[in-house]
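Hey,
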Amino acid sequence: MLGGECRQADPAVWSADRRGWGAHVSEPQDDAGPGFFAVASHQRACRAFTDDDVPDELVTRVLTAATWAPSAENRQPWVFVVVREASARARIGDVTRRVWASGARAYSEGRLSPRLFADVDRGADGGVAAAPVHVVVGADTRRCHPATVGSSVFPAVQNLLLAAGAVGLGSALTTLATSSDQALRELLGLPPDVVPVAVIPLGWPARPLGPPRREPLTSKAHDGRFGRPWPPVC
């Protein structure tokens, strides 16, 4: 069908597709939580946490969701190190703070709005480190080509973030500490083939998180070629 035409899904086909998809899902469906689109449209970074603990069972549930992500050749190169010990979390916080102060802060200050910068600054200066759980995400380079590390690991990170939001946890995708690769390796005992790519704080949000600010889809999506608006104008 040519670009620019208005297309509508056939409800009967859509229903059949949904039944077919559902028939192949072996994981029991949980209807108690919010729907996927509600979770996706409210996922945002949390940089302030309460002191309340997060049960191991909940961490396991979130990490399991992360392992359902796609990866190149289905090699599943993700590695998750769950860090609970206060001293270890403090050391990750120290690394984050040092990298932030050594140039990342100055770089971000002129690029972010004052409100967002203040939130990021507080998070890098200790707010993120205060989360009761840190998940250090690594890539096992024996399982993937270097060019596919990002495409093979960050889908799992996104699943992790969405799953955390679905169960009410706050989380954030942070990468500052990974700039100090050796410090994380020594702290966590990572083997040479495992490269740290992200640190995800997990915990209960210290304050309610509203929906994220996003530019409209019409400014980002194109129909068939750049500059032709999506969705098509009927």
